[in-house]
Amino acid sequence: MKVLISGGSGFLGSAFSRELMARYRAQNKDVTITWLTRDSSQPHPDDINMMTYDELAKSDMSFDVILNLAGAGIADSRWSDERKEQLMASRIKPTQSILDFIARASTKPKLLVSGSAIGWYGTQGDKPLTENSDYETDFAHTLCNEWEQLALKATNHDVPVAIVRTGVVIHPEGGMVAKLLLPFKFGVGGQLGDGQQVMSWISREDWVSAVIFIIEQQLKLTKESDVNHIESLAQDNAPINDSTIKTANSTANNTNAVVYNLTAPNPVTNHTFTKALGSWLHRPTFFTLPEFLLKLMFGEMSTLLIDGQKVLPQALLDAGYSFKHSTLQQALGNQK
């Protein structure tokens, strides 16, 4: 399998690359991973190929799967107008480059997996949200929605798309936990606001395993559809040749798009998360950052800290995915 990843060197992309490589090699399956980057000289593992966006624009290579994760961290700094433009551009430009490649590729990818976030649902408190739920409009929704809608244009070229809406990813190497480690280790960690806002989280190990699960499920469905279509043509006494197979692939993949929430099945309140993190680090959690102070410090971005979302992974569960870490205690206890 040949995989192209934008954002491959990041917190999620690098972990995905390591795990996919390890799994496929253990099964004696061929796998080639290429990271899409603006700087091909950046440090990378020896078994990872590198390709710049300029090279992609001229490339005639083919890939079985494209994983689109590029995007600046939404919680890295205050949402000034300039920062909002950066957040949008950091997602839209790489995605457009991938779409341009797909449009002119003679051999289309079998699947595009494109990143998003549970921010798509907007602020909805403790209302349970699944992939079929509606949204509330705010900046996080607008950012995610424009990213998703652009990625979905790959279906215009008969390439199936899986949108993965990611929650708070739990691992000390990055994300929220990495940002909280220092204050918690010094004993000044504490809950945010009243602590009752719901946090929808997922361990990084489950995130990686879920994306591999989605890829394998979608490729299996595509393969089965191809075989069924070819058998149908054969029963009609149609000749089976290279042209027929291409037609079958095109028909099977037509405008196929799915959405998955990448969250664990048991969301927690910020209070529960704070106590669990303090217990894991063996540190007290007496402090509280009041809501007014969070708004003063972070402005509009404070909504990510103050307003909860109870997002459930219904599509993953329905598809048969089994979580390794279904509780926060399991996720923290198994960190390496």
Automatic annotation (TrEMBL):
Domain NAD-dependent epimerase/dehydratase: 3-220
Domain (DUF1731): residue spans on this chain: 289-333
Source organism superkingdom: Bacteria
One family name in Pfam for this protein: DUF1731
InterPro entries found in the cross-reference section: DUF1731, Epimerase_deHydtase, NAD(P)-bd_dom_sf, SDR39U1
Protein family per UniProt: Belongs to the NAD(P)-dependent epimerase/dehydratase family. SDR39U1 subfamily.
Name used for this protein in its record: Cell division inhibitor
UniProt source species: Psychrobacter nivimaris
